[in-house]
Structures are given as C-alpha cells and as structure tokens.
Amino acid sequence: xxxxxxxxxxxxxxxxxxxxxxxxxxxxxxxxxxxxxxxxxxxxxxxxxxxxxxxxxxxxxxxxxxxxxxxxxxxxxxxxxxxxxxxxxxxxxxxxxxxxxxxxxxxxxxxxxxxxxxxxxxxxxxxxxxxxxxxxxxxxxxxxxxxxxxxxxxxxxxxxxxxxxxxxxxxxxxxxxxxxxxxxxxxxxxxxxxxxxxxxxxxxxxxxxxxxxxxxxxxxxxxxxxxxxxxxxxxxxxxxxxxxxxxxxxxxxxxxxxxxxxxxxxxxxxxxxxxxxxxxxxxxxxxxxxxxxxxxxxxxxxxxxxxxxxxxxxxxxxxxxxxxxxxxxxxxxxxxxxxxxxxxxxxxxxxxxxxxxxxxxxxxxxxxxxxxxxxxxxxxxxxxxxxxxxxxxxxxxxxxxxxxxxxxxxxxxxxxxxxxxxxxxxxxxxxxxxxxxxxxxxxxxxxxxxxxxxxxxxxxxxxxxxxxxx
Length: 470
Fold this sequence. Notes:
Elements: H1 10-13, H2 28-39, H3 42-55, H4 59-83, H5 89-97, H6 100-134, H7 154-169, H8 171-196, E1 215-216, E2 222-223, H9 224-232, H10 240-243, H11 252-281, H12 284-287, H13 293-300, H14 304-338, H15 357-373, H16 382-404, H17 417-433, H18 437-461, H19 463-469
Antiparallel strand pairs: 1-2
Helix pairs in contact: 2-8, 2-11, 2-14, 3-9, 4-9, 4-11, 4-16, 4-17, 5-6, 5-16, 6-7, 6-14, 6-15, 6-16, 6-18, 7-8, 7-14, 7-15, 8-11, 8-14, 13-14, 14-15, 16-17
C-alpha cells in the first residue's frame, strides 16, 4: 500500500499502549459543558449585531441555517466518535478511513484551527480586562502587542498559561471548573431574554427580509440571509472539541452522543431565543452596528445593572472557549505524536493526572507567543477554514464507512445519513467559498507547507509505515 493511502484499521485504533493511554474521567455533563463552553463565546455577544446588519430580522433564519449545517456535521461526529472512541477527532477518523496523507492534512488544519482560536480569544479577553488593569498602574507597553505600539500583550499571555495550568491539574478538575463557568454565562443570557421579552414588539420584524435571501455588496461581502449565515456559522463551531475527549470519556457510546448532539441543540435554542428577544425589543438597525449589541440593548431598556452583568459574563465566557480549544489542540498534538507523525517523545502521559503534560505546555507556549506578539486580525479567519476542513472530512468518513462497512456495529447511527452527509459537506463547501480570498489562499499555503513537512519527515516516522515495512 502506498504511503499516502495507508490506513490504520478501525479495530486497531483503540489498541493503545497503556503508557500512552489517556485517563477516562469524564461523563456526559462534562462533555455538554465542554461543547457549550466552546460554542457560546463572543459570537452570541457580537455576531448577532453583525448578522442583523446583513439580514435584518431574517437573521433568525440565518441562525437556523447555520445551525442545521452544524447539526448535520455534529451527527456525523457523533457516529464516528462512538464508532472510533479514541482521541484525535477528525484526524483519527481520517487516518482510519481516508488514509494517512489526508489524515495529516486534517490534523495540520486542526492545529491551525485550535491554536489560532486560543490565541485570538486570549487577545479578545485581554481587551475586556485591560481597562481594569490600567488602574493598577501597569505600563501600557505590557498591555499591547507590537502591532498596537506595545511590547507584549501580557494579559493574553497570562490567561493562556492560567488555562493551561488548570488543564494540567487534571481533566476532570478542569472540566468541573468549566461546567460552573458555563452555567454562569448561560444564566446571564437567560437574564437578557427575561428582561428583553416583555418589550417584544412584532412590528420590529417587518420588513422581515430587507436585503433578500442571498446577495453581495460591491466589495464582495455576502448579504441577506445566507450572507449572515456564513458569518454566524462561526458562532456555532467548537463542538468538535468534544470528539477529542473520546478516549477520556467513561462511557463513550452514550456520553459522546449526548455531549455532541446535546450541546448543539442547547446552543441553537440559546442563539435563536436571544436573537428573537433582541429583535423584538429593539429594531435591528438600532443595534446592528454596535460592538456589544446585547449590552447596548439593555442600556436602551434602562437596565444598567443587568447590562454590566451580561458584559461581565462575556469576560467569563472567553476563558471557557480557550480551555475547550486548548484541550482539543493538546490532544491533536498528542495523538499525532503517538502515531509517529510528530516526535514520539511528545506523547507522554502524566501517570497521576492522566494528562499529556508536555503537549499541554507546548500548546500553551505556542498560543501565548501568538497572542502576546503577533497581529491576529486576518490570521484568525484561518481558524474558520481549518474547522470547515475537519467538518467535511468527518462527514466524508461517515459516508465512506456506511458504504465500506455497512454491517459494522454502531452505537449511534446518524439518521438519514445519505442526506445528512451531503448537507454537511455541501454546506461547509459553500461557507468555505464565502471566506475572504486571502483566507483561502493562506489556508492552502499553510497546508502546502504541511505537506512538504509530511513528505520530507513525517511519513518516514509513521509507526504504521514502519510496521508495514517490518
């Protein structure tokens, strides 16, 4: 078998040396919280305004469309993660189904997604807390990156290491903290809905679709329902981090399904409820251009205390996103090292905590370096491309396995797989096509560099390749 097509047998994936096996400590509440923690971040606090500006009141349909695409991808993840309950997410599924070289591309794309998200969110969190830190007299040059005229974005660096420290304590311990923080931010959003709902005015939904279903502005920006859906989609992703926890889940057959599907349904309900309450309380043109639309709406409704609570919850929301993605990134690094595609010395597990300590530290160092020193504006959009690549690969793996091994036992079977798979793939391809041209170019450049590394080194270190040559 050629190196690019060598596949790890599905039954072999779960056969792991005990010294390299992660400790199973998580149950479904932890997984649901991990998913909601990754998904409900700044998106709901900011993108509702951006989406409303593109689609008007029909932004509610945009949430539905983006949610449907993500739910289809989520069902594919649920089937694959319960059939292959090992760490690694889409990389692991691709290795077993599509071949080593495509698995490398998916893993390389996931590295891009998770690491850049960690860094970008850390910078966003720093932006929220800097006003409080400045009162302590800390020099300005330590609060901004070089692109903003400073020396280092120290708050962004610190939050990366704080989250990493929490992960190093233990997976279950960090998951428990994450669960508490997720409950806090969901309660804050519930408070927003409860206060905005009594001000509901149906006339705010007319005209419902002022910019049509689909269109483009002169600069190529998408407009209408689909233009908003392409933006809003990125407020949904993050549930794929749940599948990286497959190996650390006590009952993967049950808990992974509940975690993935449950977190997606919860987030769709939260997003639609918040969007409906916001539009019902204030016309979209009033809050569409505001950086913090939910806080602004509460201020208009003369609820300054609740506005501060919701703003504070946004700060709480961000570290849970960093935690989820840093957790996922360290597991992707770890599994690729365990397979020999990265240096095997990185695939070590702490016998006490069951955590891949070295990979967690490496992930934190990379994320902190990016957050502290580099401009992340346009680079952050690359995370979106990496996500779409992983979603497409997972849906393709599910469809291939349904044809290749239709009788293989499946703890969870995605309903109407012949429809769900294509909807996920075509929906993600459409969203990929809607990304800025430079983002698409940089994505292919990133993977071009990755393929050179694979051909020059990784394919030779592959344990599967060495086993076949023996």
